[in-house]
Design goal:
about 290 residues, alpha/beta, single chain
């Protein structure tokens, strides 16, 4: 099937039927919408990301207005960053409400892989949770369990706020069990060593690689060495073997080189990076030299 990259912006499938396909072809909030898909309609969220690919934009700015602008730009997912930003739960809730009727689906990267962090993210309306440092099969199982109501998992019932974002006719619990995305981050050497066991856990939708933390784990302090690149290739190959979408962060510029490497889920730069890039272009056209803030 032809691959069309999917992107997410940070402010962020499964082997079960009717997940992301139902989201992208059904009712989002109060609005109906369609997306261009291959001739064969994907049966699962994972199939959709593998066939079409997705891009998310990362929001680190604690602003519903910025979140709404990002969600309206054409990105597939909105990655609300709660591990490496000062965004609070209350602000994340307002950012999610600001995306109603817009294209991008809201994810939250929680600060730690725990049942209660995922529960709070889901209960304010996130439709996907990104779990950092998912380094063992046990942590992968914990991530999946936290996303499902019993008897499928261990999520507690309290979806009153979530239904404002996802007013599902069939009932929120059934809707969430079918559609909430489980995204785990592989960012340690020992996770690469156990990657086959980790991705054997049923219910993982995306295996997202954190290149910088992975490089630090190998002792290279963020440098992309041949050893780190080989580790990333191993994760991609194992993800494809298990029907899990491989993902990674990408810099400003061409995504196609990463598509060729087998990735189908992409984290675009953060909202502040896009703002800085736009400001830099304007200032340079005026003959000014912006400072390098790296």
């Amino acid at each position: 099937y032809p691959v069309k990259p999917v992107s997410c912006i940070s402010t962020a499938m499964s082997r079960r039927p009717n997940r992301m396909a139902s989201l992208l072809h059904g009712v989002r909030g109060w609005h109906t919408w369609t997306v261009h898909v291959p001739t064969r309609t994907p049966r699962t969220c994972c199939e959709l990301i593998v066939q079409i690919s997705g891009v998310c934009v990362v929001n680190v700015t604690a602003s519903p207005e910025v979140a709404a602008q990002c969600a309206a730009m054409g990105f597939d997912f909105l990655w609300i960053e709660m591990e490496h930003s000062p965004i609070t739960l209350e602000t994340a809730r307002n950012m999610i409400l600001a995306t109603r009727g817009l294209k991008a689906l809201p994810f939250i990267r929680v600060p730690v892989n725990e049942l209660w962090t995922a529960k709070r993210a889901l209960d304010i309306g996130a439709i996907g949770v990104v779990f950092p440092f998912t380094t063992t099969p046990e942590l992968a199982k914990k991530a999946v369990d936290s996303m499902k109501y019993p008897p499928l998992g261990k999520r507690g019932s309290g979806p009153g706020l979530a239904t404002f974002r996802w007013p599902a006719p069939e009932g929120y619990a059934d809707f969430a069990d079918k559609n909430a995305l489980v995204i785990i981050i592989i960012e340690e050497k020992r996770a690469v060593e156990k990657i086959d066991e980790i991705l054997s856990v049923p219910g993982i939708d995306v295996a997202f690689i954190g290149p910088n933390d992975l490089s630090h784990s190998y002792g290279y302090r963020g440098k992309m060495t041949p050893e780190v690149e080989a580790a990333m290739e191993k994760v991609v190959a194992t993800a494809k073997k298990h029907g899990v979408a491989p993902g990674r962060m990408v810099p400003l510029g061409d995504i196609q080189q990463y598509v060729k490497q087998g990735y189908t889920f992409f984290q675009a730069p953060a909202d502040l990076a896009f703002m800085a890039a736009g400001a830099r272009a304007m200032l340079e056209s005026a003959g000014k030299k912006p400072p390098d803030l790296k």
